[in-house]
Write a structure and sequence with these properties.
Elements lengths: L14 E4 L17 H9 L5 H8 L15 H13 L3 E5 L4 H16 L3 E5 L12 H9 L2 E7 L6 H9 L3 E5 L13 E3 L14 H13 L7 H10 L6 H15 L4 H9 L8 H18 L3 H8 L3 H32 L9 E6 L6 H12 L3 E7 L4 E7 L6 H6 L5 E6 L3 E7 L3 H15 L8 E4 L1 E2 L7 H7 L14 E5 L2 E6 L5 E8 L2 E7 L15 E12 L2 E12 L4 E4 L9 H6 L3 E4 L2 H7 L3 E2 L13 E4 L6 H11 L3 E4 L15 H14 L1 E3 L3 H9 L3 H13 L3 E4 L2 E4 L12 H16 L4 H12 L14
Parallel strand pairs: 1-12, 2-3, 2-4, 4-5, 5-6, 7-8, 13-14, 17-19, 20-24, 21-22, 21-23, 23-24
Antiparallel strand pairs: 8-9, 9-11, 10-11, 14-18, 15-16, 16-17, 18-19, 25-27, 26-27
Helix pairs in contact: 4-7, 4-8, 4-12, 7-8, 8-9, 8-11, 10-12, 10-13, 11-13, 12-13, 13-14
Length: about 775
């Protein structure tokens, strides 16, 4: 089901894909402790046997695949053993991201445990770029290294492998990135995707390093699992199979670690007690990455390797400063990129480039642009002195960035990555051809709907079912991540007390009530949707279920991921002379107004009068009603013809007919008797005195006289009023003045003095063609 189409009044940002249960012949035995919702979530994940359920809910280190099934690993192990025996110098060549840093740490610690003479080398992102390079290899040769082991890098190092052979250096590549057309000619390659007998191909770089370490050590090195968990989660590989086991136990190791560097890192990041995959993804990983993004990643590796608690504390504090600097830098570049994109809404692939941008943070910038624009984004730093542009790219699920860039690989000097992320270097002159080529490819491959993000919704829940016990049961499926996402649920309910929160009012807080319980919902970054909420209107939300802990109290909480409204809405601005309507004008492609033409022109809204022909307009997204009609039938016809999804009532009344006292039947009788008695009455002399005696307003008195005159009960001559002899018997309703006042009062009653629910029901009836009978007006005479 896709909530973003049809008659929705507030469109969802993403496509909502409702997941069904797998149709399998699977029954739980009587001893099963799994709740129905967990059963459904497991089936949706394709876990359909009791054995698979057990392995998923209770990961076991014994289920790790044997590293012996990795191609060339025996050869690589023997080469390392030889190097140790002969006292050769071994260099671990890593990468500058969290995966590369932890992979380097794992390999160095394993080699140190075996007594190897080893050190590490992380290339500088800014001066050397990604991956092995000739200068680094030649420097290693000068320093006496005869064996280089790459971790989390190297599978594309075809030229560098040739250099290693020339220098008589044995090169062992351990990597997990996409295999390209040509493999490096080196001593050994340890790569799951180059190993047909290895049953799991989605290890992170640190996962591959761990398997190599396991083979070298001859046992599963549990003490290294905390590093494996960090690198695996930070690199966004699927948290299934081996990765799930590694992260599951790695998080436990990380929570109880005695490692000085990890303890210092947790302390500066305010992580205490249980450590989750979210702590890694949003707190630990970014801090490790920040070092390599702004300067050399050596600091991060030193933190991982140090045995000195004071040194660990000092390094962790420096990293904290760098992380804050990174955050500010990202925000600055994002703002500059968005200004450049202000007039580029039609492009399919975003390509932005500017001199001076720090290339270390461009991947983060690209991710933020993808989230905002729902398009693949390439962000490049121009290096005019070198004639090149370097940067990073991120994509949307529907567009395979790696495959599409490989089609134009001749444009790049360097390129690597996978379907959703890549890094690249190209000549400045090739930036525009790259933009044109990728835009042509994406236009051919994707429809408009493909650009939207997709939310996989696991189930629809009533508010009453959101409990602590349900959330705790769902936690059995953790750790969550790629291919094992946190469950998302659809809820439809009427929110209470919506509020904008935060210093910038950019967050939304809602409350829902069920079974005498209150449930809070928070939507970060969607504060503007507050203006689209109307009283007693159910909303659809897609949420994560979380637990809010405060002062020892624990209660369920909803984290809003997306929102839509599928009922027509009434926005009530009655009585307000000044109303900020620009937000709603820009949000509606099909929009018209009726009533005050001047207000319509000030907003740039197409306008018609009540008397115009509305049949050709068709159904509208939004209708603004700026003034009330003189006849309800005119408004009802507009509503029937346009059936607007949103109605804004923006009128006000300065001189209310409805609130003025209407003359009673006795008032008309008394006035008629008075005229009979007086025979002739002066408009200028007797009537003012009469008005003061009776306490009637001038308006009331003149209204009665006007009605009598229209009914030919009196005639007026020379400012004198005199009864007509033997007038025809007529009903007061025959007077047009009487009818107009009654009609105006009725219009005000229905459209202005009604409460919100009454007015919405009235509009609903008009648009649904209920054919209800006209109300009989009781005029009382």
């Amino acid at each position: 089901m896709n909530w973003s189409g049809g008659q929705i009044m507030l469109l969802s940002k993403a496509n909502w894909k409702f997941i069904g249960k797998e149709k399998v012949n699977f029954k739980w035995d009587d001893s099963s402790q799994v709740s129905p919702i967990i059963e459904e979530l497991l089936l949706q994940r394709g876990i359909t046997t009791k054995q698979a359920v057990s392995k998923f809910l209770k990961p076991d280190l014994n289920d790790l695949h044997s590293p012996d099934n990795l191609l060339s690993i025996d050869k690589a192990v023997k080469r390392v053993q030889k190097a140790i025996q002969q006292g050769e110098k071994v260099l671990v060549f890593g990468d500058y991201d969290a995966d590369g840093v932890t992979a380097t740490t794992v390999m160095i610690k394993a080699l140190q445990e075996l007594g190897a003479q080893c050190d590490y080398y992380i290339p500088n992102r800014f001066t050397e770029g990604y991956g092995p390079n000739e200068a680094a290899f030649r420097q290693a040769h000068r320093e006496g290294y005869t064996l280089i082991i790459t971790v989390d890098t190297g599978i594309a190092a075809v030229e560098e492998a040739k250099v290693a052979k020339e220098l008589d250096i044995d090169l062992i590549i351990t990597d997990h990135h996409e295999v390209q057309k040509e493999l490096p000619d080196c001593y050994a390659i340890i790569h799951p995707k180059c190993s047909p007998d290895y049953l799991f191909q989605e290890l992170a770089g640190v996962g591959v390093a761990f398997k190599f370490a396991q083979a070298l050590l001859g046992y599963v090195p549990k003490h290294l699992l905390s590093f494996v968990a960090i690198g695996t989660v930070a690199d966004l590989v699927p948290l299934l199979d081996e990765n799930r086991i590694l992260v599951y136990y790695g998080l436990k190791e990380l929570a109880n670690t005695t490692h000085h560097g990890l303890k210092a890192l947790k302390q500066t990041a305010n992580i205490d007690g249980i450590v989750t995959e979210e702590d890694i993804g949003f707190v630990i990983g970014p801090r490790l990455n920040a070092v390599g993004r702004l300067q050399s990643a050596d600091m991060a590796v030193e933190l991982m390797l140090t045995e000195d608690p004071e040194e660990a504390k000092t390094i962790a504090e420096e990293m904290e400063v760098l992380n804050r600097e990174r955050q500010q830098l990202v925000q600055q570049i994002v703002e500059e990129a968005e200004q450049m994109l202000a007039n580029e809404a039609e492009q399919g692939v975003i390509v932005v480039a500017k001199e001076g941008w720090n290339e270390g943070v461009l991947g983060i910038v690209a991710s933020k642009l993808v989230r905002k624009w729902d398009k693949p984004a390439i962000v490049l730093s121009i290096k005019a002195d070198q004639g090149i542009a370097k940067g990073s790219a991120r994509s949307i699920p529907a567009f395979d960035l790696f495959q599409n860039c490989m089609k134009v690989s001749h444009l790049f000097q360097q390129f690597g990555g996978h379907s959703q992320a890549a890094g690249m270097t190209l000549e400045i002159a090739q930036v525009k051809p790259l933009y044109q080529a990728l835009n042509e490819q994406i236009m051919q491959q994707l429809s408009e709907e493909d650009y939207k993000q997709e939310l996989s919704v696991n189930s629809t829940l009533p508010v009453s079912q959101v409990t602590l016990s349900l959330i705790e049961a769902i936690q059995q499926l953790a750790p969550f991540g790629m291919h094992n996402p946190k469950p998302l649920f659809h809820i439809k309910a009427v929110p209470e007390q919506p509020r904008q929160i935060g210093s910038m009012k950019n967050h939304l807080k809602l409350q829902f009530k069920a079974d005498d319980k209150q449930l809070d919902a928070i939507g970060f970054g969607i504060g503007e949707l507050y203006h689209y909420l109307t009283p007693r209107t159910p909303i659809n939300i897609v949420v994560e279920l979380t637990i809010n802990e405060w002062n020892g109290n624990r209660k369920p909480q909803l984290m809003i991921q997306d929102m839509s409204i599928d009922e027509w809405q009434l926005f009530d601005h009655r009585g307000k002379r000044q109303t900020n309507l620009e937000l709603f004008v820009h949000a509606s492609p099909l929009i018209y107004s009726v009533g005050d033409e001047q207000r319509a022109q000030s907003l740039g809204v197409p306008h018609q009068t009540y008397e115009d022909d509305w049949s050709s307009i068709g159904e509208l997204d939004t209708l603004f009603i700026f003034t009330m009609p003189s006849c309800l039938n005119d408004l009802e016809e507009v509503l029937k013809q346009t059936k607007p999804k949103n109605i804004h009532v923006c009128y006000y009344v300065e001189d209310s007919t409805y609130l003025r006292a209407f003359p009673t039947r006795d008032d008309f009788k008394w006035m008629y008797g008075f005229l009979q008695q007086q025979k002739v009455v002066s408009l200028d002399k007797e009537l003012p005195a009469f008005s003061r005696t009776k306490g009637w307003s001038k308006e009331k008195l003149l209204f009665i006289i006007h009605v009598f005159y229209e009914l030919r009960f009196i005639h007026i001559e020379g400012r004198k009023i005199q009864l007509v002899n033997n007038p025809l018997k007529r009903d007061l309703q025959d007077s047009k003045t009487y009818q107009k006042r009654m009609q105006q009062a009725e219009i005000e009653r229905k459209l202005y003095y009604s409460n919100y629910e009454q007015l919405k029901n009235y509009f609903t009836n008009c648009m649904e063609h209920l054919g209800r009978p006209k109300e009989e007006l009781s005029y009382g005479l």
